[in-house]
Amino acid sequence: MVDIMKKSLKIRLLLIFFIVIVFALAYLVSDTVNGSSYKVILNDLDPLKEVFNFIRNDYIDKEVDPTRLVQGAIKGMLQELNDPYSRYLNPITFQREQENILMGHFGGLGIHVTMVEEQLTVISPIEDTPAYQAGIKANDKIMAIDGESTKGISLDEAVNLMRGEEGTAVTLTIKRENIEDNFEVVIIRATISVEAVKEKLLEDNQIGYIRISTFNANTGPELKRVLNDFSKIPLEGIIIDLRNNPGGLLESAIDVASQFIKVGDIVRIKGRSSFTKAYYSYGNTYPDWPLVVLVNKGSASASEIVAGAIQDNSEGVVLGETSFGKGLVQQIYPLSDNSAVTISTSEYYTPKGRVINNIGIEPDISVTEEVDSEEDVQLEAALNFLLKEKVIIPSRDTG
Description:
Blueprint: H1 2-28, E1 30-33, E2 36-39, H2 42-58, H3 66-79, E3 87-89, H4 91-103, E4 105-108, E5 111-116, E6 119-125, H5 130-133, E7 141-145, E8 148-149, H6 155-162, E9 169-175, E10 183-188, E11 190-193, E12 197-202, E13 207-212, H7 219-230, E14 237-241, H8 250-258, E15 265-270, E16 276-280, E17 291-295, H9 302-312, E18 317-320, E19 328-334, E20 340-349, E21 365-366, H10 377-388
Parallel strand pairs: 13-14, 14-17, 17-18, 18-21
Antiparallel strand pairs: 1-2, 3-20, 4-11, 5-6, 7-8, 7-9, 9-10, 12-13, 15-16, 15-20, 19-20
């Protein structure tokens, strides 16, 4: 009896807390939409409170967890935004994503995914991971996970299904552009450690090649180390490879772009108001190397910021395929229970005002990847351009 009374009291307290939060939000939320002012009044949230009470008092299952109801309400609100990047992160997911971004290591398959027209879609596989080695490609549609359809699945649910103990297998059913039938790919889970920056010298040490896999807290410092070493070598040019780089931290993108742009805008960000904020280059003292930036369909977000900044400032040419087109800025809002929501609060624009979202960065030199070839035709084209074309950098008009 004591346990029942304690449980009942706990549920009542949660209910009171929930209603208080609802009331507080009703008083606080106000804004402007399409030029007309509105305020959320208490009556607008009455149906939410009523449904909560109906479930609490009358639903056949007495053991319904009030926390799950609140989480479900939050998810429902975010889904109504019809924005794949605005989502709810439970405490475990929130902690995991923070570790992914800041530390650069996590467990799973090694793919970044999003929702495109309500379909689970690969942004890009991460280089040298199980997904990459299994042949997963940018823009692949994941139709099922271990035989379970992904129709109607949330992004977090999909990620959780694909994660698991190292050494265990997961089967993805893939729909790929220009291939008629869906096919299955079996991938063995592993602990993924992302090395943000890799470098090597090509063409008898004439060309410096830098592969940037992600934009985390380590990317900028690692790139500085590489460029300091390259400064000691008489190079004919540098290739920055951003292919299959899904992005990361805005601050990291600004840091990276600054190391190739001495003076100028890096990116402009516009929120729901007409106010636009510009981020400028920090400046650098490196040589003015001829520069080629490689992009493909898996280059997204921060990668597109860097490519667009170099392109608009005429600091180099972009070569490859049109990038993914992820140009929305998300703000993370931690919640009181250690969960969080990410909400799209603004949009990226290139320094000359070109839109990135759902459009991408169009290359100056279009070179399509040859899927069935062992030769890297895009890298070869970049090398030929630097060594033979003598780097004529095109000027771009304001978009």
